[in-house]
Amino acid sequence: MGWTNVALVTTSSVLLSSLVFVTAASKNPTYFNIGGVLSNNVSEFHFQETIAHVNFDSHYVPRGTTYYATAIQMDANPIRTALSVCKYLIAHRVYAVVVSHPLTGDLSPAAVSYTSGFYHIPVIGISSRDSAFSDKNIHVSFLRTVPPYSHQADVWVDLLKHFGYKKVIFIHSSDTDGRALLGRFQTTSQNLADDIDIKVAIDSVIEFEPGLVSFTDQLSEYKSAHARVYLLYASKSDAEVIFRDASLLNMTDEGYVWIVTEQALDAENVPVGVLGLKLEHATDEKAHIKDSIYVLASALRDMNQTENITEAPKDCDNSGSVWETGKLLFQYIKKQILFKGETGKVAFDDNGDRINAEYDVINIQEIGRGLVVGQYLYNNEHNRMKLHLEKENIVWPGRPEKMPAGIEIPKHIKVLTIEEKPFVYVRELKNYIDEECAPDEIPCPHFNTTPKEDTRAFCCKGYCMDLLRELAKTINFTYNVSLSPDGQFGSYIIKNNTAGKKEWTGLIGELVADRADMIVAPLTINPERAEFIEFSKPFKYQGITILEKKPSRSSTLVSFLQPFSNTLWILVMVSVHVVALVLYLLDRFSPFGRFKLANTDGTEEDALNLSSAIWFAWGVLLNSGIGEVRLRNTMENLTCATVKGSAVDMYFRRQVELSNMYRTMEANNYDSAEQAIADVKTGKLMAFIWDSSRLDFEAAQDCELVTAGELFGRSGYGIGLKKGSPWADKVTLAILDFHESGFMEELDNRWILLGNMLSKCEQYEKTPNTLGLKNMAGVFILVAAGIMGGVGLIVIEVVYKKHQVRKQKRMELARHAADKWRGTVEKRKTLRATIAAQKRLKANGLNDPGSVSLSVEALPRSVIDMPSPVRAWPGSCDVRQRSPIPIPVPDGSDMIV
Question: How many Å apart are CA 678 and CA 693, to the nearest integer?
Answer without folding.
Answer: 17
